[in-house]
């Protein structure tokens, strides 16, 4: 009997181990959102800990701790919980929402000159060398900042504004002296020994310098894009909040950074970050939407990137109406490289490469599947998937690959063929992205399908095909521009289609801006030297362009609310390219509002918009009512006795006073849909505006009244728009209502889904 008992511990150990492992794996960080802060003075940590202690068993008291605590603009915290504990906590009276802490991703200079070319007056009102003091403070929530960049020089800038209440946190390789009158604040949230506000990725530095970088003469990326690098408002101050590391961006940290930025006294918050479009949660389970709402309550505009999951529809993120959502466009500069074949035919590809190859020598040319490793499927080899290429077959050759597998990036393809000792890489882009891929000194080019078919035909037409790839050249004054970037996420919004998203478009392709001066492993720059600037693409780059323009407008109209500024930009946006024709997408079709929003930002037109749509916090609360949130939750969010309208339905979202109109469903057999808007006159005191409707065939749109008279003392006027879809084509119908007083054109874009 004794001998049998000796086996029981051994038999039970695996069960105990599995049970403990399962229990521990059930633990993960959650965000607990408790609504509006009553005093905004902090000091909520004790009550948050008491809430946790009422939930977590005493034997696990080590878990009664806060990862983050929010107590300035809103209340809440993040902590390690089990799923069951999170579920129980969500039922507490004072709790608005409890949700897993999400991991968000980064949405990764000729641009300002291009905007000046679009709007001739911009240059005279906003000279490139303007760098006098400004009290506008931009909070950049990103990967931190590289303070030594010349883009953050404070030369010529006066003392820090007295409204600034923030800090410059010291950390690893970052001292308080790294801040100055330009970079006035820096925070980080990774509290380990190596934590620091210093940017080691480069994204945050690039974004901050695009929004508000000081002018830097003779800036370039190893000689490419040579010119003056500067931000949208070079005189603005920058406060950096490092919320992202190499493994992503924690939602709880982003929320903490927004809370800190509000407390610190920033005027604008720029966030080039977002959750995956396929994992979107509702507005009160989204850390950016929550934080942005409370920023808007305090008059702080939050500008966000739309995402890089285009050209698929329903891929846009950061779609709350109180967020200014930005899509990306090209500028009138292109980076091209020439592929010269052995038959003397040459083709232009898109690239950023500093190829050492010349016209004088050609190299064997081969399709990927013809140099496949043994037992490798042809699909893998032609896509240059790791392990698919045989170095013995590929060495010394220029390899042609395709991009049929979205999981294998151009950078990976480059590493695969480079590792196989190939001489260069040509990528046939089957998706029509055709973006400049930076391969350093390694010869590469990205080409379209039609060009690719010609190159493959040449390979098949001769026993010894050859080619060479020449270094990149800059093509200035490129036309047409702007064009909607192919990667830019598209609407309609996945959560509701009754708000038109994205809002607006700005330069986001091949943007030159400051960078962390380091050499990335696997990348060979010219002369093996670092650069102070880099060329990057993404809605991440478009977002700070709008941030910079918002700062510029705020410097001219300091008393405008964030919604007035937003409306001014949206109703005055440009809808033409540099050929004088309508904006297009990368497939050469006319761009619709679900791709380009209202159009390309036009800073100077926005300074004098004539009429604006003021969207109030009450509008946003009505939006949440119509979306389906209960009044009790909204009272917690606002700390008021707010009540929803007696009749709340999602279709009424279309009626909130937004600068665009979106109707998710207009049935052919239903009555005419009525939409109401109210405009505020910020132009001349005596003005009469007349409406004009641009609508697609079959969709009947009537505006009443069709004239708005503003006499002395009259600032606001209401009008109604009636939509009749009985004879319209099914699907989305796009158009605009224009109000004109002889000087101003106020353009209100609409999108109506006829069913």
Task: Give a written overview of the molecule.
The protein is of the alpha/beta class and 755 residues long. The chain folds into 4 domains: 28-101, 2-Layer Sandwich (Alpha-Beta Plaits); 105-332 and 498-579 and 596-607, Peptidase S8/S53 domain (Rossmann fold, 3-Layer(aba) Sandwich), CATH 3.40.50.200; 334-476, Glucose Oxidase, domain 1; 611-615 and 657-754, Immunoglobulin-like (Sandwich), CATH 2.60.40.2310. It is 23% helix and 27% strand. The chain is built from 19 helices and 38 strands. Strands 17, 18, 20, 21, 22, 24, 25 and 26 form an 8-stranded mixed β-sheet that branches. The chain is globular, with a radius of gyration of 28 Å. Mean pLDDT is 90; it is low at 1-24 and 120-131.
Instruction: Kindly report how far apart the N and C termini lie.
Output: 78 Å
CATH architecture of the largest domain: 3-Layer(aba) Sandwich
CATH evolutionary superfamily of the largest domain: Peptidase S8/S53 domain
Look at the helices and sheets and give the structural class.
Answer: alpha/beta
* Strand-residue proportion: 25-35%
Pfam families: fn3_6, Inhibitor_I9, Peptidase_S8
Family: Belongs to the peptidase S8 family.
Protein name: CO(2)-response secreted protease-like
Keywords: Hydrolase, Protease, Serine protease, Signal
